[in-house]
Write a structure and sequence with these properties.
8-stranded mixed sheet, binds iron/sulfur cluster
Length: 342
């Protein structure tokens, strides 16, 4: 890792150079209340003052809500992969969403290499940025408040400069071409350390997950608990769709009217909707809201501790924010702990 600094006076030139030479996706204010990551055409569009976006940026780019996997013809049997990928810069992603992306990287390259994801990921240049967490964000509790890998450059505002961690040759190349940088000096490291100390205090929401996974199974048979936690759920699936680490999808055929050509595509799916567990014979493995909420929390807080040694939740708080029934994962973690004394 190399450490550089960029004077804020030179920040506009750096960004403008990137925008002129690359497809840049970055945070933009899209109405009075919402920010979203969208293609950026000029420097003024970028708004790094965002505290949340409805959808996680890396998931949007690397695992879009709908994408073609293969095209095929049936008169002469032929199948062609549809890997739509181009070099892009993702600018301004924060640490927890970047950690969510790192989780997706593992999912789509472990057990099975997902070419559609990997080709996009290989061409994505990632420039992260420390941003202000929302009031519902508990990333610090999940150990996701700091970006340690998965980026080319990571920038932190330390006053009149950005402290830049340079993780890859590509990141260094971008700085060399487009930024007037200098070496980070002791005073810059001190300012960075000071920022990190104060940053932890900005995470206001809490969810005590210490040792949570060890005895989580004890809660599985507590039917009254799960009925209570899921009572108001509408089974809408929004919590899955907005989650940076949810990766379930459904594959379907779109056959053209000529019945000779078609596309096999995938779309995001949700373990919270009733049809997810439905199989042939009209049997549903998770027929109740309680079954489905339990499965969702098991996936977030247990399954990937066993598989990867990591929670599949980065504490972004989007699921709680998106839920019309006001089901809040932090409150539910406390309720589960209380019930079974984890
Ligand atoms: S967003 Fe809320 S209501 Fe919708 S499925 Fe998730 S928990 Fe249920
Ligand atoms: S489970 Fe909720 S808080 Fe955790 S990463 Fe997903 S959306 Fe964010």
């Amino acid at each position: 890792m190399l450490y550089k600094v960029l004077d804020k006076d030179n920040y506009k030139d750096f960004l403008s150079g990137l925008i002129q030479n690359y497809n840049v996706t970055g945070p933009k204010k899209i109405n009075n209340v919402l920010h979203d990551f969208v293609p950026i055409k000029n420097f003024e569009e970028i708004d790094l003052g965002y505290v949340k976006t409805t959808l996680p940026p890396a998931k949007k780019l690397l695992f879009p809500s709908k994408e073609g996997l293969v095209s095929y013809t049936t008169d002469i049997i032929n199948v062609e992969p549809l890997n739509e990928s181009e070099e892009k810069i993702l600018f301004g992603i924060n640490a927890w969403d970047l950690n969510g992306m790192n989780f997706l990287d593992r999912i789509f390259t472990t057990d099975f290499i997902d070419d559609n994801y990997v080709e996009k990921r290989d061409k994505l240049i990632v420039i992260g940025m420390d941003t202000t967490p929302s009031e519902i964000n508990f990333a610090a509790e999940m150990g996701a408040e700091c970006a340690k890998s998965g980026f080319d450059l990571f920038m932190t505002d330390i006053g009149n400069k950005y402290f830049i961690r340079v993780a890859t040759p590509k990141g260094m190349e971008l700085l060399s071409k487009f930024a007037k940088i200098s070496e980070a000096l002791t005073a810059d490291f001190n300012a960075y350390d000071k920022f990190k100390e104060s940053y932890l205090g900005m995470f206001k929401a809490s969810a005590d997950v210490r040792n949570f996974h060890e005895n989580f199974e004890v809660s599985y048979g507590k039917n009254e608990l799960w009925d209570r936690l899921s009572k108001n759920c509408f089974s809408c699936g929004s919590c899955n769709l907005v989650c940076p680490t949810c990766f379930c999808f459904n594959v379907k055929d779109d056959m053209k009217i000529d019945l000779k050509t078609g596309i096999k595509s995938r779309e995001w799916d949700s373990c919270m909707i009733p049809d997810y567990g439905l199989v042939a014979g009209n049997h549903n493995f998770r027929p109740t809201k309680a079954n489905r909420l339990k499965q969702r929390y098991r996936c977030k807080l247990k399954t990937f501790i066993d598989k990867f040694g990591a929670y599949s939740c980065v504490g972004c708080g989007r699921c709680a924010e998106a839920c019309l029934a006001k089901i809040n994962i932090c409150e539910d973690i406390s309720a589960i702990k209380e019930e079974v004394s984890l």
